[in-house]
Give the backbone structure.
Amino acid sequence: AKAYGHHVTVNYRESYGMFACSGILFNHESERRGREFVTRKISHAVARIKLGLQTELVLGDLEPRRDWGYAGDYVKAMWLMLQQDEPDDYVVATGETYRVREFAQLAFEVAGIEDWERYVRQDPKFLRPAEVDLLVGDPSKAQDKLGWEREVSFPDLVRKMVTHDLAMESAPAAAR
């Protein structure tokens, strides 16, 4: 569906002269991401473990590397695409990768838990048979042509997510 969306955008731009841009956005994460995504699953579980509301974080493979960036930075890139005189296609990514393991370790560190591995259990039911080991994007065109630079680093992204989840889990149920 994503590939189709990209190709139909290019087709309409070329066939009908429409101002249509395609943004190929690598993993864009934030505290608003659904808990079914591994980053939110981690940040939410870490907050609950810190607060004594949960005892473990269950994950699949800890080794895949992902290019994770902050969603707010990616929205800025999309806005910049639409400000250009000519429509074009851009990859929006950080160009850096981190393992799922590194995300989890940093999330536990943000919460003040150093012995993080004792809280993490791997379960084969969360393994993906066609897992891609490495996903990384090249944002150089977006940087060069749009002047786009990410503002939130990977550690800051993890910090934002864990801090948010700690605050949400600490709030009275009526305030959530």
Summary: Helices lie at 2-16, 38-50, 71-82, 100-110, 140-146, 154-170.
